[in-house]
Amino acid sequence: MLRVAVVGGGPSGSCAAEVLAKAGIQTWLFERKLDNAKPCGGAIPLCMVEEFDLPDHIIDRKVRNMKMISPSNKEVDIRLDPLGYRQDEFIGMCRREVFDAFLRNRAADHGTKLIHGLVQTITTGPQRKGPYTIHYVDHGHGVKGDAHTLEVDYIIGADGANSRVAKAMDAGDYNVAIAFQERLRLPKQEMAYYEDLAEMYVGSDVSPDFYGWVFPKYDHVAVGTGTMQENQSLIKGLQRGIRHRASKRLFRGEVIKVEAHPIPEHPRPRRVVQQMALVGDAAGYVTKSSGEGIYFAAKSGRMCAEALVKVSGQGSHIPSAREMKQAYVRQWDRRYGTTYKVLEILQTLFYSSDAAREAFVEMCGDQDVQRLTFDSYLYKRVVPMNPWQQIKLTLLTMASLVRGQALAPFRYQPVDSAVGRSQEDFLDPGAVQVEMTPPGGGQSPASQPESREKSAMTRA
After folding, report:
1. How far is CA 10 from the centre of its chain?
2. In whole angstroms, what is the distance from residue 244 CA to residue 415 CA?
């Protein structure tokens, strides 16, 4: 019987382990930190709720309204009701520590052997053909942990951007982006504003190549930003940028947690080598433009495991690399390759300057654009446009880009309070626990000097 080790207990690893265990394959799932809370916006599409049978209790908020905010603070509301979506259609918001634990425990309930341990090294044998021996420290019975080994026939790497499995199989490097997030507890009035609303901010002050977000959770909001690896030294300044811009809506915001983490920008050169495969962030399955990774992590874990079950004859023999490339990698690329390419083009076009970002937000006000966007996001499909929509979108893009040149701001200002706070409220020095002074000369906070010391998000 095939023996499989899944390294990494996030959505990709847990979904892979669940499929394997259900098929009767011996499966071990390694997770070094069972209370891990990855810095992540935590948004999941409706199709994931249905496809992965996710219960209501792990979804903190059901968001039906989005607000896009441009560099000049032009606000565009995107609401599902006017677009004709049903009341049961929404974007789910979750806390990763709750979400990940549910999937991991479900895999264990189906027979996966869950190991609370840190994988330190992997012995792959001559030419990486095995036998595979995993050397790990088991923390299941204490903080210090005991050294153990486990021999398996197949390894699935679901251990994130700094994947040890990827290193063991020589999967090749990729560029990574950096996500930084703070969780803030807000007063009741401000928290009520975010009841079913998520905000996205764009501008060089919050990110030169991505966006900043304020996403609602169970009893707090997640406020964060991301940027590509070459701008890593600027990340703290960019976080100050999103905090500054959203400061009047984060009135008396109390920071309860700070998180940082690397996320991949594109798939690794090799995702299957001999009897080892990569899924989720370890494989590089995060989309450009939106930065979405949760659905694609879980889906890749499931697709990889289903392919492994099939080509191994329900675990009766060890499959070849060729079989797994055909059944898993090629199928993945065929299904989602177009989505990744389209989002990469959009990021290159609309995140290149503040003028382009102004155009992007203006275009989001068009209902045809909103429907295309939400259909694609909620149900993970590339929605074709009819000829008239294509002509309209082209003309709209050109006009918005021209107007964006005039709208791009010289200085970045906080957006107004959304709950009617008066200016006197913000004069209280203890009222807003964020930086309120905009950077001079239109410079992004990221342009201010920052320490270049190695940060938490680069550590494995």
Report:
1. 12
2. 9
Residues 6+ apart with CB under 8 A from 376: 339, 382, 383
pLDDT higher than threshold 90 for residue 440: no
| Nearest to 209, CA basis, from 75, 360, 372, 411 | 360
**For the chain, how long is the longest CA-to-CA vector?**
72
Distance CA 198, CA 181 (A): 15
Closest CA to 100 of 28, 182, 176, 42: 42
| CA neighbor of 71 nearest in space, from 321, 380, 262, 356 | 356
- Beta carbons within 10 angstroms of residue 57's beta carbon: 8
Using alpha carbons only, give the angle 432, 436, 358 rounded to the nearest 5 degrees.
115
CATH 3.50.50.60 fits 3-53+96-174+267-319, yes or no: yes
Which strand (E) or helix (H) includes residue 239? Answer: helix 235-245
Strand partners, 27: 4
Reported CATH class of domain 59-94+175-264+414-458? alpha beta
Amino acid identity at 168: A
Q: Hey, CA dihedral for 390, 352, 446, 260, is it positive or negative?
A: positive
Q: Which of 432, 442, 74, 411 is nearest to 247 (CA)?
A: 432
CA distances from 260 to 78, 183, 456, 459 (A): 29, 12, 6, 10
- Rounded to an integer, what distance in angstroms lies between the CA atom of residue 14 and that of residue 29? 7
Instruction: Tell whether the torsion through CA atoms of 188, 190, 196 and 199 is positive or negative.
Output: negative
Among candidate residues 302, 249, 241, the one with its CA nearest the CA of residue 277: 302
Beta-bridged to residue 262, according to DSSP, are 178
Beta strand 221-228 with 176-185: parallel, antiparallel or unpaired? antiparallel
Per-domain residue ranges of the chain: 3-53+96-174+267-319, 59-94+175-264+414-458, 346-407
User: Tokens in use for 296?
Assistant: 């694609």
336 contacts: CB under 8 Å, gap ≥ 6: 285, 296
pLDDT of residue 34: 86
pLDDT in tens, 195-245: 999 999 999 999 999 999 999 999 999 999 999 888 889 999 999 999 999
Answer yes or no: pTM beyond 0.85: yes
Q: Which of 157, 303, 180, 166 is nearest to 234 (CA)?
A: 180
Q: Give the phi and the psi of residue 410 in degrees, each rounded to 5.
A: -90, -30
Q: Give the lowest-confidence range in 8-12, 106-110, 136-140.
A: 136-140
Q: What angle do CA 187, 192, 193 make, to 5 degrees?
A: 105
pLDDT digits (tens, 9 = 90+) for 92-137: 999 999 999 999 999 999 999 999 999 999 999 999 988 899 999 9
| β pairing state of 212-216 and 221-228 | antiparallel
For residues 183 and 214, give the distance between their C-alpha atoms in angstroms, rounded to a whole number. 9
